[in-house]
Amino acid sequence: MGAFPAFGAAARPNVLVILADDLGWRDLRCTGSPWHDTPHLDRLAREGTRFTQAYAAAPICSAARVALLTGRSPARLGFEFVTKPASARPPAGLPLRVPLYPLDLPLSEVTLAEILAPAGYATGYFGKWHVSAHHGGYLGWSPTHGPRQQGFDEGDAEFGLHPYAYPGRPGIRENALPAGQFGEDELTTKAIGFLRARRDRPFFLMLGHYFVHDPIHSRAAWLVRKYAARLPAGADPRRAEYAAMVETLDHLVGRLLAALNELGLADNTLVVFASDNGGHPAYSANGPFRGSKWNLHEGGIRVPWIVRFPGRVPPGAVSDVPFIGTDLLPTLAAATGARLPAGVTLDGRNLWPVWRGEPAATELLTQPLLWHFPYYHPETNFAAARAAIGVDDFAVSQTRPHAALRLGDWKLLHYFEGARDELYHLGRDPGEQTDLAAREPARARELRRRLDAALDEAGARRPTRADP
């Protein structure tokens, strides 16, 4: 077993990872939202460190989640999209032929649970898995490739209060909650039950919330009314429903954190809160960034990320060190003393010193970050998608196969159609409004060379020219 570098002979820390779904970078009050009330997550940020340049490894759910679980990039895993049924095939008639859709995270891949269990951890996964084919209904866990087959001792796919639960509970949508009440969320209750049952040994709990993914609806009508009164004139009324979902998510996180306090576990629990990818274009606040989920502009991959660990992670701190979802596995391995998987090429890096407030090593700041999204989204008709979603967002109107690389403050996006490159300086232009590729051709060529080399090294699946 590996050494326990951070704590010597002390008890190994518990680990709690809370993952939101489609939460925008600016959707929390502590990240700049002027009107979402998120007191519990704001408190978590005050008690820990908030990271302003944390990135999802992909702009879409399944691909981002496999990176968190394995420390390996979606490009290396060939898992760059959301899971689809085994019979699904990419549509024909598009300019490029894209790779086949991912189906299941292979059981040969080593997950966080599989490195922490040998170190003595009880492991639990509750909520949205979405790295295997749907089974028995939307987002149902696969009986052959679910959390229990990937190292987790127990768990539950319970939808809780999310609208995904409505089809199985007739009449629930119309059953509005009384003022001041959020409702009983069975997902959170079951996760707290895991904490109670495992309080006497180190645990690793990963909770994948379904909030704030669409469909956008809240049974807390009193919350919707509160936010409707705050809407600017002409704003999409669905934003009030979305805001109610954000506050509900905050409430559920607060319940979990309160349980840690009640059980006397808070001081020895490393808590990580993050979103799986950027927010939805119609509802989320991704600004000041361009884009949203489904593309590799900053709005699609920059995510809120908070870490709390009393006495180890500085309270009230804000860090601008860039890092990516693949870094979670090696960082948690360092924090817990767990061994990294032998014979496995990891793309992630150990951020534990940075999380503890130490200056980032030069080699960390000079390593590039890589993204690869070789698909169209939506997969068929952009005009129909615009009509359905109600907005003409960049993510909807122009998401085509592309890849990206960030090196320092410079970021290159490469579009496979026409081999087009865009170059941005994120320090001066975080909103990616000014393409510098024509002004800085040498730099663009160098970053493109490094991007191509990184994709080659990972064995990335690239789109190819469609048959005429």
Q: Uncertain segments of ≥5 residues (pLDDT<50)?
A: 1-9
Largest β sheet strand count, sense and barrel closure: 8 strands, mixed
- Helical percent range? 25-40%
**Main sheet: strand order:** 6-5-7-1-8-9-2-10
Beta strand %: 5-15%
Radius of gyration: 21 Å
CATH topology-level fold name of the largest domain: Alkaline Phosphatase, subunit A
Shape: globular
Question: Roughly what is the average pLDDT, rounded to an integer?
Answer: 92
Helix segment count?
A: 14
Q: How many strands?
A: 16
What would you call the structural class?
alpha/beta
CATH superfamily of the largest domain: Alkaline Phosphatase, subunit A
Structure description:
With 468 residues, this protein is of the alpha/beta class. The protein has two domains: 14-364, Alkaline Phosphatase, subunit A (3-Layer(aba) Sandwich); 369-465, Arylsulfatase, C-terminal domain. The chain has 14 helices and 16 strands. It has helices spanning 39-47, 61-70, 74-77, 112-116, 186-197, 221-228, 238-262, 298-301, 328-336, 352-355, 362-365, 382-389, 394-398, 441-458; strands spanning 14-20, 49-51, 54-55, 96-97, 122-127, 154-156, 203-208, 269-275, 305-308, 317-319, 323-324, 369-373, 402-407, 410-415, 420-425, 464-465. It has an eight-stranded mixed sheet with strand order 6-5-7-1-8-9-2-10, with helices on one face. The protein has a four-stranded antiparallel sheet with strand order 12-13-14-15, with helices on one face. Strand 14 (410-415) and strand 15 form a beta hairpin. The radius of gyration is 21 Å and the shape is globular. The N and C termini lie far apart (56 Å). The model is unreliable at 1-9 (pLDDT under 50).
